[in-house]
Structures
1.
Amino acid sequence: MTDKEFASGKCVCGKVSYKINAEPLKMAQCHCLDCQRSSGTGHFSLAFFNKDKVNIKGETSFFTTKADDGPEITRHFCTDCGSRLFGTNSANKGLISIAVGCVDDHSWFKPQAIVYNKRKPSWDCMDIGLPTFEEMPPAPK
Ligand SMILES: [Zn+2]
Ligand SMILES: [Zn+2]
């Protein structure tokens, strides 16, 4: 039995693409400084999926940083066009975060939280109705 495709995505040049076969487990806007630098803007929009449900085609390069709260965050990007595609977290190896802007149709994206709000630039406007955390909230059990 094959899973039904939920979404697909690719980098700017198309060398790396993926298909996602499940709904997101959580969705967030992240204002941490590494997300700001690696995106070149005020935040990253991330959807988290079960890693087994994301099939990636094409080679990425990656860079690992240490998050304030301990774990290592590895961000993957296309070696040709530089698009940041997805990330993993050493504290939860079963999860993959997808950079929502690379998804072909991301109309389903509904962030459930804003994290690292203490780093939010005043010019980066967010939905004030969302639960907001100054740093990273504890992982849900
Ligand atoms: Zn590319
Ligand atoms: Zn971040």
Note: The chain has a mean pLDDT of 93.
2.
Amino acid sequence: MSLAQLWQLQQLELAREKETRQLNKQFLKELSKEKEKLLARQEELKQARIQLEKLVKQHKRQGRDLEELEAKKRDLSEELYSGRVANPKELSHLEEQVQAVEAKLQTMLEEYLELEEKVASMENNIQVQHNNLAKDMNNYNMKAREAKGNWQAAKDRIEILNGQIEEVAAQIDPSLLAQYRRLQQRLGISVLAKVQAGVCGGCGIKLPSLFCQQIKQGETIKCENCGRLLVIS
Ligand SMILES: [Zn+2]
């Protein structure tokens, strides 16, 4: 009778071991690594946005400088063609000034357009990265929720198994239970083996036919090969 309960105890302990393995699976650690990577991407994106903001400000500044220079050119041209200046030396000086401003305008305009292109491409890049990150974050959150749910469920099952193990163990003859625990220290959880068709279920060796007789009579018999306690099913 006690052996049957011992067998039940072993089955419960095996089930608990399986759940515990599930609980300690590597994937929770992998999940936290994935989160770290996502946070790093988030930080990168933040830095890119700061950079973009600086460029946008610089672009606006260039625009204002361009307008100022355009105004200056207008003023100089007006002066040049107003007829107010008659002195040839002054006129040629004015002409030179207009040309200098025009040349500067050209350079500035090129820089302005170049920066405009850079800003547009950066904006586009950030948008793409933002969308990708949002998608990956979403996936991660779903996975994390599921993993957490699985983890909790396994924990709950272990809790239930612990209660059942305690209950069954309390019904077993203490000296038999102590023997079982001692054997477990050496052999792991599975210290009971069923005899099936005269063969030890633990190691597969053929058992003397006398053993079955003795077990049926209530004797505690160990497999001579693997040392497990034999149980008749
Ligand atoms: Zn055996």
Note: The radius of gyration is 42 Å.
